[in-house]
Amino acid sequence: AQSVTQPDIHITVSEGASLELRCNYSYGATPYLFWYVQSPGQGLQLLLKYFSGDTLVQGIKGFEAEFKRSQSSFNLRKPSVHWSDAAEYFCAVGSMNYGGSQGNLIFGKGTKLSVKP
Amino acid sequence: EAGVTQSPTHLIKTRGQQATLRCSPISGHTSVYWYQQALGLGLQFLLWYDEGEERNRGNFPPRFSGRQFPNYSSELNVNALELEDSALYLCASSLWGNEQFFGPGTRLTVL
Questions:
Q1: How far apart are CA A76 and CA A33, in angstroms?
Q2: If contacts are CB pairs under 8 Å, which of residues 33-62 in chain B contact chain A?
Q3: From the candidates B21, B99, B106, B107, which should be mutated to test the interface with A, based on the most A CB atoms within 10 A?
Q4: Residue B101: its pLDDT value, please?
Q5: Phi/psi at A84 (5° precision)
């Protein structure tokens, strides 16, 4: 079955510390992978995406993620967290193949990030 | 460039009523997706429209329905509202084969 697992429900880090949010997926087809961020009561903002090519992808706000096919993982990282990064982060997988696409994204349950001053 | 817009921002209904939620995609996008984000249930896919046709639907009862208009905007209708329909409803748009961009959502409260 297709699924996305984010093992950490809630993470707290100090401002200026590094961050890694974990994401594992199970997907039969070639996966297209995404990280979104959601502030309270808001919609989702796309941080970064992986379609193909270089397995280390750069996104907005200083985030990056690394696709590891052998581990079925797509972990999100940031070298130095800012207080404004406090939000909920969602990993998602989808198939964007024309014709065969189901269209929808499959989301993990999310990881809530708190930032200590 | 304007992003995905949704209306209304908040909607309060009582059990048994009908709710209509609206979504305008990013200009040029032909696909619209609807997701439900209910407390404790995460983000669940509802419906996908492209070029005016329903392409796929998630595991929701038929009282969840919608349509896409010629200008690619979309509406989601929820009939016979139940308490558990209370959630944030998110709309996203894309060009088929590309990433989805989300709107701010409509908060539906069923009393």
A1: 11
A2: 33, 35, 42-43, 45, 48, 50, 55-56, 58
A3: B99
A4: 92
A5: -70, -5
Quickly count: other Cβ atoms within 10 Å of residue A28's Cβ: 8
Query: Averaged over B89-97, what is the pLDDT?
Result: 87
Could A104 and B58 be called an inter-chain contact, meaning their C-beta atoms sit closer than 8 Å? Answer: yes
- What pLDDT sits at residue A98? 46
The predicted-structure confidence for A40-79, as pLDDT tens digits, reads as follows 878 899 999 998 888 899 999 999 999 999 999 999 999 9
Answer whether B105 touches A (CB < 8 Å): yes
Note the pLDDT tens digit of each residue in B14-71.
999 999 999 999 999 999 999 999 988 889 999 999 889 998 899 999 999 999 999 9
* Cβ neighbours of residue A43 closer than 8 Å, sequence gap 6 or more: B4, B90, B102, B103, B104, B105
Q: A97 is written with which tokens?
A: 């193949």
